[in-house]
């Protein structure tokens, strides 16, 4: 028989576990509701613009057709020649064909608009030829894309093409073209596996070597090793993997899932064990490795940062605690004497001193117009690169919070990493695509 104290202790444990599950469900549902609302608003805005454009085009074509018909009647009265009559009929047929084309466009939008998959830029005919390679303006060397296609943002408002000399151009919905400064995309790769059952959502990635990446596919619950743009190995989890980092000194890959469990693998993705998280950490989430080889962990429960030391194969101990100033931590990154932390729901990113935790700078919704900032990384100069996810862009700002660069052309970017020489920026976006950018050129 259990004593009353034992029963009370057991009841408290069960209540704490249930409360943790309820908190997790609330967080997940809030994120999903937010995403659905944003996509619904985008769709409504797009449909309104599309209808206005089509109605204006219809009105113009109707006026043109009326004018042609009036001219035809006048010329038929004045000229009895059959040749003149035939020319007028050809003009009238050409206008009718153009009106039929616009009608098909409108029908396509009505059918596909509800699915938020088809936009005006995809249905209206484009006369430009898309290229299979993106060229540097300086080196003038082409780099073949893995999947040659339209590079577009989520609203389908612009695409990229090239002129006769292979200069990269941005084509907007209004038909205007702008020359893209320097290079936009060096290369891109898709980490989708044949056995994947749904769209890939890359929550995080880490670089083992410049030609080997570890990628977390949250939607398909797998950890993937990508070598030379090809998935060479894949390990499946019972839960959804959310964060990953590589410890070169210990030759370990550390993965955190949505149940706040830390797993360790070697650099070939062979399972090593489950890491025991020390008290007082309750929900380890943000992960990175400091220059000392110690692990930097962000606690999603209270927003605190912890430096942890690996004392044994599966045992971690707390070295020190750093206050992030946030109530929740999503991503962390450290380099040199600075660390950065993002709070997506709070639309804010902070830069702190690693030595004493002092606040160096901050970018938020007011200062930087951030909308759900997620993955970030600190470069060798202390600048912070952050995925401004719901604004579909990547921002680069100084440690003091001053904006240095804005890079567009992404769809819900979530994770970002730099190559070893910090010349190539890797950005993971929704759909399992990883785009590689020339970082030095893009930040100058």
Verbal overview:
The protein is of the alpha+beta class and 444 residues long. It is 26% helix and 36% strand. It is built from 4 helices and 29 strands. The chain has a 4-stranded antiparallel beta sheet with strand order 6-29-28-27. Strands 7-8-9-10 form a 4-stranded antiparallel beta sheet, with no helix packed on it. A 4-stranded antiparallel beta sheet has the order 11-12-13-14, with no helix packed on it. Strand 17 (304-310) and strand 18 form a beta hairpin.
State the gist of this model:
The protein has 4 helices and 29 strands. The protein has 444 residues and is α+β, with helices and mostly antiparallel strands.
According to DSSP, the number of beta strands is 29
Total count of helical runs of at least 4 residues: 4
Radius of gyration based on Cα positions: 27 Å
- Order of strands in the sheet with most strands: 6-29-28-27
- Beta-strand percentage range: 35-45%
Q: Spans with pLDDT under 50 lasting ≥5 residues?
A: 109-186
What is the helix fraction of residues, given as a range? 25-40%
Shape: elongated
For the residues shown, what is the average pLDDT? 76
Main β-sheet description:
4 strands, antiparallel
Q: How widely separated are the two ends?
A: 72 Å
| Structural class based on helices, strands and sheet pairing | alpha+beta
């Amino acid at each position: 028989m259990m004593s009353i104290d034992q029963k009370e202790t057991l009841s408290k444990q069960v209540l704490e576990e249930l409360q943790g599950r309820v908190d997790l469900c609330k967080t997940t549902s809030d994120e999903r509701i937010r995403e659905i609302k944003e996509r619904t608003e985008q769709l409504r805005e797009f449909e309104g613009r599309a209808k206005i454009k089509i109605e204006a085009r219809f009105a113009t074509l109707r006026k043109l057709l009326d004018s042609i018909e009036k001219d035809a009647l006048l010329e038929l009265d004045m000229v009895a020649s059959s040749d003149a009559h035939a020319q007028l009929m050809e003009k009238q047929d050409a206008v009718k064909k153009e009106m039929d084309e616009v009608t098909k466009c409108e029908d396509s939008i009505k059918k596909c608009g509800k699915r938020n998959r088809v936009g005006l830029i995809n249905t209206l005919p484009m006369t430009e030829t898309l290229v299979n390679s993106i060229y540097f303006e300086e080196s003038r060397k082409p780099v073949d894309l893995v999947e040659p296609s339209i590079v577009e943002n989520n609203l389908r408002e612009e695409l990229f093409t090239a002129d006769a000399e292979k200069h990269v151009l941005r084509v907007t919905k209004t038909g205007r073209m702008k020359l893209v400064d320097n290079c936009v995309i060096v290369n891109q790769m898709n980490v989708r596996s044949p056995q994947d059952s749904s769209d890939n959502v890359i929550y995080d990635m880490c670089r083992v070597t410049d030609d080997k990446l570890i990628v977390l596919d949250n939607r398909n619950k797998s950890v993937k090793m990508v070598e030379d743009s090809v998935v060479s190995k894949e390990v499946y989890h019972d839960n959804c993997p959310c964060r990953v980092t590589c410890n070169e000194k210990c030759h370990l890959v550390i993965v955190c899932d949505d149940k706040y469990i830390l797993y360790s693998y070697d650099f070939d993705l062979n399972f090593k064990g489950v890491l025991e998280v020390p008290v007082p950490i309750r929900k380890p989430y943000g992960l990175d490795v400091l220059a000392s080889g110690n692990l930097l962990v962000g606690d999603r429960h209270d927003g605190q940062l912890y430096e942890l030391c690996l004392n044994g194969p599966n045992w971690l101990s707390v070295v020190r605690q750093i206050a992030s100033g946030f109530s929740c931590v999503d991503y962390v990154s450290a380099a040199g004497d600075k660390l950065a932390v993002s709070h997506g729901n709070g639309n804010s990113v902070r830069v702190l001193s690693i030595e004493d935790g002092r606040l160096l700078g901050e970018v938020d919704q007011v200062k930087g117009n951030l909308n759900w900032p997620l993955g970030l990384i600190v470069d060798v100069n202390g600048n912070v690169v952050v995925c401004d996810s719901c604004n579909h862009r990547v921002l680069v700002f100084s440690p003091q919070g001053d904006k240095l660069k804005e890079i567009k052309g992404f769809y819900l970017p979530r994770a970002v990493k730099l190559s070893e020489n910090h010349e190539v920026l890797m950005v993971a976006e929704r759909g399992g695509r990883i785009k590689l950018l020339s970082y030095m050129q893009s930040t100058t």
